[in-house]
Amino acid sequence: MTRRVFRWAVPVDGHPHHFDLTGGPLHVEAASDTLVEFWAEKDDAQPAHRRAFQVFGTGHDLPDEAAWCGTTDRTRGGFVWHLFEVAP
Question: What share of the chain is helix, strand, coil (3-state, %, to 5)?
Fold first, then answer.
């Protein structure tokens, strides 16, 4: 089998983080007040593409090219995070 689902983590630090993926996020969840996780399918038979993801808070400015991937439930600290794909 060449298809699997993996988990990746994106810190809430105001910077884009890069991952080599064959598919987009399937699910987004807050791991803590400062870390967002996402799950995506990886297919070894397909070429991976370098993609950049960044976490934004509610009310934060978004880059024009940012594409929404998912929103977390409220964390224990009361934060709701939004994962966007941004230009690499």
Answer: 0, 60, 40
